[in-house]
Amino acid sequence: ETGVTQTPRHLVMGMTNKKSLKCEQHLGHNAMYWYKQSAKKPLELMFVYSLEERVENNSVPSRFSPECPNSSHLFLHLHTLQPEDSALYLCASSQDRGTGGYEQYFGPGTRLTVT
Amino acid sequence: GENVEQHPSTLSVQEGDSAVIKCTYSDSASNYFPWYKQELGKRPQLIIDIRSNVGEKKDQRIAVTLNKTAKHFSLHITETQPEDSAVYFCAASWAWGNNRLAFGKGNQVVVIP
Q: A34, A97, A102, A111: most buried by Cβ count inside 10 Å?
């Protein structure tokens, strides 16, 4: 499969559950991103990984824990979430040569509902 | 950090008319300004971008203009078609930001047949 893929596409979880979101990119990029998309809000950058190192943690609560085992895979581990965490979680990838200005390619997203 | 404002939030246009969406940014160091289109239930996709050394860029019915002095940039869609109906996001990125993008809130464009 080409491009950026995400699994699962839909997830319903209780506040005490632990789950993980997975993202995979087949574009040869060296940077990956997690975004949160809520209604009526801008896309919120959560985490940035460049060359498998986390270079950005945008004041995200510790109940969200990212993992980047290699340049093609990115995970978002979730635990003890709140109902306000319900949103579409988008993964993206791009080249990163430290100067900015590269297109980010998005995955289809995981629609998360916290009950 | 960068702050991107996008106006208007909703825009309805008659098919065949033009649509213009405006964005402002706060960080004068920003040098890359992409526009993403997100159709209902689909992922955001880049439709056009512009860099700070260029004032205008055009791709068929879509154009983007940049005013660095005023720190604003605009998306222009001419001869709108029903398939142009979507949410459009502007974004800004700065040179040393590890390709981080600050997005606007998005603009819902509705093309009325």
A: A34
Segment A72-114, tens digit of pLDDT: 999 999 999 999 999 999 999 999 876 677 899 999 999 999 9
Taking the CA atoms of residue A103, residue B45, residue B66 and residue A97 in that order, the dihedral angle to the nearest 10 degrees is -10
Q: For residue range B22-63, list pLDDT tens digits in order.
A: 999 999 888 899 999 999 989 999 999 999 888 999 999 999
Cβ–Cβ below 8 Å for A100 and B103: no
Mean pLDDT of chain B: 92
Which one of B27, B50, B99, B100 makes the best mutation probe of the A interface by having the most chain A beta carbons within 10 Å? B99
| B36, B42, B100 ranked by CB distance to A48: nearest | B100
Distances in Å between the alpha carbon of A70 and those of A24, A45, A51, A75, B37? 10, 20, 8, 10, 29
Nearest to A114 by CA among A75, A88, A76: A88
From the number of C-beta atoms within 10 Å of its C-beta (0-12, 13-18, 19+), residue A80 rates as middle
Q: Which of A20, A112, A36 is nearest to A69 (CA)?
A: A20
Query: Cβ separation of B98 and A42 shorter than 8 Å?
Result: no
Judged by DSSP in three states, B106 sits in: coil
A90 to B96: CB separation less than 8 angstroms, yes or no: no
Write the residue in A4, A96, A99 that is nearest to B95 by C-beta. A99
Chain-chain contact of A100 with B96 (C-beta, under 8 angstroms): yes
Number of H helices, E strands in chain A: 0, 11
For residue B98, the model assigns a pLDDT of 65
